[in-house]
């Protein structure tokens, strides 16, 4: 194997006790030659959110999604106008930021977009090389490469703009061993897990999906091809993902080894407003729609999430009773009745199969939600489930009065 990046686990992955073989199965890694990659990527570093109440959101994610609080920054650490809580589950890291002072720019962002993703941060071995390449390809550099240092070491970081008001912060943390970034202090969870609660409910971020304006998907695919050197992984267009009422187009770009995967959706013209139109309207522009979180035991994860109050999209029993589906998916690791009981979807392609389920929107606006995914060889995204999934979303949209 020529790719030295793929063979090395990140500090986060090692800390989380993940092996390369596990990670390969969890998120569907592939081998690739990094030597000619103009923008080498190590892993997804963090997902940064702006939320209306970071303090309560951090508690909610600890209680309901089983995440652990690891770091904090706010007025107590010298940041006057905002609070940020850093949570982890395996190698997945979420950062929730809320405004504290009335004049905080965080609150302006929240007024416009509601709870949402502002930063899909990427860990890279060479920030300067990536930024030089991104600039040469016409990217907007929001933060120039610079060092940030505290008693735990030095992080080199920069940021570039992507769709909407979303950014990619680039982080080289190879010379740093603090809890997150310089300026953050260690905070540990005060939640006591009940007996028998697994160590975590998900191990890694599998993919993060962006919704962009109609007619602009190809522009953003080209952006990821040219600026980040990402390759096109799969292509689902038109009828693949159209129901009677709504339609969308979707293409997936990924880093060389598929550690970072960004599907991009745009609405397609249809009889009625699509779920992507609804997102763009309520988020007030392009933004991140869902994060897929990888788990090695989706049945147990879903059982606990439901006990914790997380709500999932409904899948009708007819989905599971369809002989065509049963023939297509063949044998999976559990009887289909177990999936039916939990409304977990299943899809198979030439490489294997995957199990997946989608939550309802997490916040007040019908924007950001989660997918939980358990891969068994499949490198896909559940193409065979898109129709069933969208019909479920449309039932929710009818209930919200978006479709009538
Ligand atoms: Fe997904």
Account of the 3D structure:
This protein has a nine-stranded mixed β-sheet. An eight-stranded mixed β-sheet has the order 11-12-13-10-14-17-16-15. Helix content is 27%, strand content 30%. It contains 13 helices and 17 strands. The chain is globular. The N and C termini lie far apart (55 Å). By secondary structure, the chain is α+β, with helices and mostly antiparallel strands. The longest helix is centred in the last third of the chain and has 15 residues, at 386-400. β12 (248-254) and β13 form a beta hairpin. Residues 207, 209, 290, 292, 371, 381 line the site of fe (ii) ion (FE2).
Largest sheet: 9 strands, mixed
Instruction: Output mean pLDDT.
Output: 91
Strand adjacency order, main sheet: 6-7-8-5-1-4-3-2-9
Bound molecule kinds, no repeats:
fe (ii) ion
Strand content: 25-35%
> Which stretches are poorly predicted, pLDDT < 50 over at least 5 residues?
none
Total helix count? 13
What Rg do the Cα atoms give? 20 Å
Give the strand tally.
Answer: 17
Helix content: 25-40%
Shape: globular
Tell me the span between the first and last alpha carbons.
Answer: 55 Å
- Which series of helices and strands comes N to C? HHHEHEEEHEHEEEEEHEEEHEHHHHEEEH
Structural class: alpha+beta
């Amino acid at each position: 194997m020529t790719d030295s990046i793929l063979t090395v686990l990140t500090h986060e992955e090692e800390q989380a006790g993940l092996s390369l073989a596990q990670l390969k199965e969890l998120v569907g890694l592939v081998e690739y030659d990094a030597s000619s990659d103009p923008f080498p990527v190590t892993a997804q570093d963090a997902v940064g959110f702006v939320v209306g109440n970071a303090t309560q959101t951090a508690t909610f994610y600890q209680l309901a999604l089983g995440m652990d609080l690891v770091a904090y920054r706010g007025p107590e650490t010298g940041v006057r106008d905002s609070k940020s809580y850093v949570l982890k589950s395996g190698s997945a890291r979420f950062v929730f930021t809320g405004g504290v002072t009335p004049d905080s720019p965080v609150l302006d962002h929240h007024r416009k977009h509601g709870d949402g993703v502002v930063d899909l941060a990427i860990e890279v071995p060479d920030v300067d090389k990536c930024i030089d390449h991104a600039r040469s390809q016409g990217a907007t550099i929001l933060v120039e490469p610079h060092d940030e240092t505290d008693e735990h070491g030095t992080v080199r970081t920069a940021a570039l703009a992507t769709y909407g008001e979303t950014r990619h912060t680039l982080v080289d943390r190879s010379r740093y061993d603090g809890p997150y970034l310089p300026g953050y202090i260690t905070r540990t969870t005060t939640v006591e897990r009940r007996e028998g609660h697994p160590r975590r409910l998900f191990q890694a971020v599998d993919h993060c999906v962006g919704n962009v304006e109609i007619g602009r998907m190809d522009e953003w695919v080209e952006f990821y091809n040219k600026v980040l050197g990402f390759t096109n992984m799969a292509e689902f267009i038109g009828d693949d993902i159209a129901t009677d009422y709504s339609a969308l187009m979707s293409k997936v770009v990924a880093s060389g080894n598929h550690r970072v995967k960004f599907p991009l959706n745009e609405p397609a013209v249809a009889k009625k407003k699509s779920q992507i139109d609804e997102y763009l309207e309520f988020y007030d522009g392009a933004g991140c729609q869902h994060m897929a979180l990888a788990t090695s035991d989706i049945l147990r994860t879903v059982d606990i999430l439901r006990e914790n109050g997380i709500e999932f999209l409904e899948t009708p029993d007819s989905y599971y009773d369809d002989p065509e589906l049963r023939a297509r998916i063949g044998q999976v690791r559990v009887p289909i009745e177990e999936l039916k009981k939990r409304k977990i979807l299943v899809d198979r392609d030439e490489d294997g199969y995957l199990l997946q389920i989608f939550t309802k929107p997490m916040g007040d606006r019908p924007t950001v939600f989660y997918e939980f995914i358990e891969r068994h060889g499949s490198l896909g995204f559940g193409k065979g489930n898109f129709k069933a999934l969208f019909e479920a979303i449309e039932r929710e949209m009818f209930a919200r009065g978006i479709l009538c």
